[in-house]
């Protein structure tokens, strides 16, 4: 994911633009109402199209590769996964002053895990682990190798080495930089030596839909690809805790080196966010500081 804000053009994406694009390019849907979704994302702006569809528009050029990637690969992955993923219905072209390709998807019901009731978090954690195992079993032949299109998810966390060390320097005295550096160094030393497998790239509570307390769907495959799946374990620290975390760890059943790389990914992301909010948003800063502390403790407990 990027470390800078999306372009100012993000604000120019609105329901009126969506209606014009749909009317011109997909006239069969021109009479359907267009309404914003209840909770929007960062990489894309999303709108409901009628009751059964959504329209997603990238907010910047860096997110554009995901449109064609998801259009090509989601229909191939979907039959092999235990819960639904976004059904791909159409891909739109630039137009009406909007410069990027865009997509029409089928609507998936459910609330995101950070907002939906989860009475049995260990059971939910096991279901998320089951989804990851199923995704990794999908045929990776010809899949998009980790790289710029996935924001280097699925590659070595070493891509963010300079950035992470810069964050540590900036946050000196506000996080335990000596312990954090040990976690980061361990992540870089724990090389991925397996065969490339499919990864989602952003297994986060906002991309997991819940219905009746169970995992109902997984959305937003924009950072997916083929490579090292360690990046998909960050949810261990930024969402799960206590019994849920223990259940997830048992269910994913990966080796120590994969956990070391996963801690590196979690540390990088938490440092990135913390650097941006520590002086302006105490509540968000506290969340990231907790994640960092949990990662540091986990490293010392399991390394």
Q: Say how many strands there are.
A: 10
Q: State the CATH superfamily name of the largest domain.
A: Aminoglycoside phosphotransferase (APH), C-terminal lobe
Number of helical elements: 9
Order of helices and strands: HEEEHEEEHHHEEEEHHHH
Low-confidence stretches: 1-9
How many independent structural domains? 2
Helix content: 40-55%
The main pleated sheet reads as: 5 strands, antiparallel
Task: Return the average pLDDT rounded to an integer.
Answer: 94
CATH fold title of the largest domain: Aminoglycoside 3'-phosphotransferase, Chain: A, domain 2
Quick one: CATH class of the largest domain? Alpha Beta
Q: Enumerate the strands of the largest sheet in spatial order, edge to edge or round the barrel.
A: 1-2-3-5-4
Description:
The strands form 3 sheets. A 5-stranded antiparallel beta sheet has the order 1-2-3-5-4, with helices on both faces. A 3-stranded antiparallel beta sheet has the order 6-8-9, covered by helices on one side. Strands 7-10 form a two-stranded antiparallel sheet. The protein has 2 domains: 8-107, Phosphorylase Kinase, domain 1 (2-Layer Sandwich); 114-302, Aminoglycoside 3'-phosphotransferase, Chain: A, domain 2. The protein is built from 9 helices and 10 strands. It is of the alpha+beta class and 303 residues long. Mean pLDDT is 94; it is low at 1-9. The longest helix has 22 residues, at 256-277. The chain is globular and about 60 Å long.
């Amino acid at each position: 994911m990027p470390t800078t804000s999306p372009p100012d053009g993000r604000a120019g994406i609105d329901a009126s633009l969506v209606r014009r694009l749909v009317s011109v390019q997909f006239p069969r849907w021109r009479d359907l109402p267009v309404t914003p979704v209840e909770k929007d994302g960062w990489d894309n702006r999303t709108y409901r199209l009628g009751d059964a569809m959504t329209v997603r528009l990238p907010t910047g050029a860096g997110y554009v590769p995901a449109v064609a990637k998801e259009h090509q690969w989601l229909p191939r992955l979907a039959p092999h996964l235990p819960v639904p993923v976004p059904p791909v219905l159409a891909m739109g072209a630039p137009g009406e002053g909007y410069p990027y390709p865009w997509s029409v998807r089928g609507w998936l019901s459910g609330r995101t895990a950070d907002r939906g009731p989860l009475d049995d978090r260990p059971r939910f954690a096991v279901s998320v682990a089951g989804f990851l195992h199923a995704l990794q079993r999908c045929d990776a032949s010809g899949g998009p190798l980790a790289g710029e299109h996935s924001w280097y998810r699925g590659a070595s966390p070493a891509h963010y080495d300079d950035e992470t060390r810069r964050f540590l320097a900036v946050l000196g005295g506000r996080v335990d930089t000596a312990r954090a550096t040990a976690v980061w160094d361990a992540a870089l030393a724990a090389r991925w030596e397996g065969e490339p497998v499919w990864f989602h790239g952003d297994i986060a509570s906002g991309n997991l839909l819940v219905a009746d307390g169970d995992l109902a769907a997984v959305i937003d495959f924009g950072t997916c690809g083929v490579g090292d799946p360690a990046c998909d374990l960050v949810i261990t620290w930024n969402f799960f805790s206590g019994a849920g975390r223990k259940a997830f760890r048992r269910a994913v059943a990966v080796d120590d080196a994969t956990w070391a790389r996963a801690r590196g990914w979690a540390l990088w992301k938490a440092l990135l966010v913390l650097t941006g909010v520590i002086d302006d948003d105490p509540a968000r800063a506290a969340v990231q500081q907790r994640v960092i502390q949990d990662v540091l403790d986990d490293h010392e407990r399991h390394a």
